[in-house]
Amino acid sequence: MIGQTISHYKIIEKLGQGGMGIVYKAEDTRLKRIVALKFLPQHLTSTEAEQARFQQEAQAAATLNHSNICTIHAIEEYENGQFIAMEFVDGVTLRQKLPIKNLNDTVSYAIQIGEALQEAHGKGIVHRDVKAENIMVNSKNQIKVMDFGLAKLKGSLKLTKTSSTVGTLAYMAPEQIQGGEVDSRSDIFSFGVLLFEMLTGKFPFRGEHDAAMMYSIVNEEADSLLKHRGDFSPELERIIERALEKDPADRYQHVDDLVSELRRMQKQTSRVSRAALSGAYPRMDPPAVAAEPVVVEKPRRKNMFIAAGVGVLILIGILSYLMFKPSPTFDSLAVLPFVNANADQVTEYLSDGMTESIINSLTRIPQLRVVPRSTVFRFKGKDIDPQEVGKNLNVSAVLTGRIVQRGDELNVQLDLIDVRTQAQVWGEQYHRKIDEVITLQQEIVAEVSQRLQLALSGETKEKLAKRVTENAEAYKLYLQGRYFWQKRREAELRKAIDYFNQAIALDPGFALAYAGLADCYVVMEQYAGQPWREIAPLATHAAEKALELDRSLGEAHTTLAFIKMEEWDWSGAEREFRTAIEMNPNYPTVYHWYGLLLSRQGRFVESFELIQKAEKLDPLSPVILLNVALAYDRFKDDMQTATQYFKKTLDLDASFAPAYYRMGMMQIRRGMLKESLANIEKGVELSSRSSENLSSLGYCLAILGRKQEARKVLNELEDLYAQHKTSAYNIARVHAGLKDKEKVFEWLQRDYEDHSGWMAWLGYDFEWDEYRGDSRFTDLMKKIGLAQ
Predict the structure, then answer these.
(1) What pLDDT score does 268 carry?
(2) How far is the CA of 24 from the CAs of 12, 27, 159, in angstroms?
(3) Average pLDDT in the 231-241 region?
(4) Residue 99 pLDDT exceeds 50
(5) From its phi and psi, is residue 289 left (phi > 0), alpha (psi between -120 and 50) or beta?
(6) Helices in 134-178 by DSSP H: which ranges?
(7) Residue 95 pLDDT more than 70?
(8) Which secondary-structure segment (H or E) carries 399?
């Protein structure tokens, strides 16, 4: 087949052949990438059962998406047969590396294999053929688990029990040999066999023929690891012994428990290695006792005592340094989005919610900079290197987590990594009931702050120990509310409001639930088009109720400040912003919104300082970077730097529509009309014709003299206004471009009567520059408290 083109795959070379298929290296001529093609031999597809098995292989493997699992691209037909197109792995099989002499490599490979099985088991898939031939090690020393060809989906029809055709005999679990029920614990047994083989190059059970091998697996004890190799930890032997228990009930019940113990052992090994490298003395054997007395001259003995005394003093000094030297402290942390191992949206609120709650709690520690949610969640669902992410975010430590939910049981694996030394500071696995999630989060926050070597004041400890609610069900509803609030779409916002209200119904004293409700209402004008006058009372009541229950909630003070700003209560807003900073000095949104307040008041120098502070705390937030760009444009008159920030914003999120229209408005102000129109049109497209972007488009078209097109946009905006889906301010802007002076003031007056938050931009937006001398404009500025 070499050189042939099958479908759109050009066969390059044969990679290998086994009982379940032939594998070729090929070029995908459509996508211009190298792939591997696996063909099932003709004699194995002659029956419907074999064809069903091949279909099952592809369907099972295609659902898996993990860095340690070979990715399935497609399944296609060829000459009455079928083949699978999959990821090409440039490397060797694990078989070619056995035995592995380096113990650290063995444990690293084992952890990666275990994580691949975690992913499969979490989706109800049992591999059933874990062996060295089905594990690849690529050119980057990364494990890839191959061939889920014998995987069995839970609930599907059982495959036939023909001994060695289903699973390779030496790796098979006793229950598999005996024709019993096969589940994820059978994979754990095979994993134990493979781990023994990785260390020794031999199988733990042996026989001269199949029957003898089967008897050994079912009836005999595993071979001793110590007999073959002595440079391992007793802990490793215990792990393998437990994985190889005859009775599935005596083995690890879940592979994540096995992986957790391997990680813990790896961490301990790492500590020992670091201690040895840091200057600890090797063990010294005592000197041998002489058979006969030896006469030594007195001066020589005196010199010996002096040398010994000096040596003791040096040793004491070294030991004192090692024992009492200050531990390195950490001043910054990124809590990466916890992985939802269940891989379903039903429990995603839990992984997202726990991550966000831990971030919010840790931001209460004044001396610790915590990267905010908006930045770290950009890494959600991505195959990332925590060490690399930590460097990019300029933090000294990274916390990663993985959550598995089984019924009402939670398993949470956490790892704290020192970015500077590339060492694991701490790792732990928690097993809790889901109703204990609040207590669990408090334990995690307390443990992390201790491991970061942070000296906490009594007040800070009290804040961290404070329970947000005693009602576990209310807290689950709160997490679901936050999950939907983050989506920032009308339907999801209304779901979030419902969840927060349910939480409040269960616990009327739940301050965070009221804060979440307030946060929903304050963004409804922007994302759902609901007039501010309708939602302002609801937002105010929720924010004030949250603070009535807990005056220390910096987030709630920030929301109330935003409400007061929209209500044109400038002094009240500033007071709340300052209180919010006092309560939570690491909350980037407070500096962002406080900067907006000051810019609207014409206090540009102070505003610029605050927006830079927000950027430092949240360097990957598109909306904050957008406001940094606007600040350079308006406050510094620095278009070059502003443009760089616009581009940086779009590099982070190319679909962030406000960046396009705001860049376009900057270009209009500087006479770059053609460039402006292209950017604004892009913003309109990406925003699905949002009123804010449409308003800029209408203004730009009018400035270009394309008045008929501008009036079409105007008609569209007026229709939206009639439906309560835009503000009069956006309509007035188009009239400003058309030079309809009377219409400008007619619609601005309507916006004033609607008490729209958009009115606060009158003192900032350049579109009104030619109208500022009009007494009607001055009167409007006075009415909203912004008279210059």
Answers:
(1) 66
(2) 7, 10, 27
(3) 84
(4) yes
(5) beta
(6) 174-177
(7) yes
(8) strand 397-406
Domains and CATH numbers, the chain: 5-87 (3.30.200.20), 91-267 (1.10.510.10), 332-467 (3.40.50.10610), 655-788 (1.25.40)
Write the burial class of residue 777 (CB in 10 Å: 0-12 exposed, 13-18 middle, 19+ buried): middle
Tens of pLDDT, residues 458-517 = 777 766 766 778 888 888 888 888 878 777 677 888 999 999 999 999 999 999 899 999
DSSP string, 572-601: HHHHHHHHHHHH-TT-HHHHHHHHHHHHHT
Instruction: Quote the pTM value.
Output: 0.56
Whether residue 129 lies in the annotated active site: yes
> What count of Cα atoms within 13 Å lies in the side-chain half-sphere of residue 409?
5
Per-residue pLDDT tens over the stretch 45-59:
556 666 666 666 667
* Local structure of 637: helix, strand or coil: coil
The pLDDT value recorded for residue 287 is 38
Give the containing element (helix H, strand E) for 747: helix 741-753
Would you say 503 and 510 are in contact if contact means Cβ atoms under 8 Å apart?
yes
Given the structure tokens 């910054």, which residue do they identify? 332
CA separation, residue 704 to residues 105, 107, 141, 671, 683 (Å): 66, 67, 59, 10, 18
Residues in the chain: 788
DSSP for 498-511 reads HHHHHHHHH-TT-H
The pair of three-digit structure tokens given for residue 245, joined into one six-digit string: 């228990």
Q: Give the per-residue pLDDT at 286.
A: 37
Catalytic residue among 129, 352, 633, 751: 129
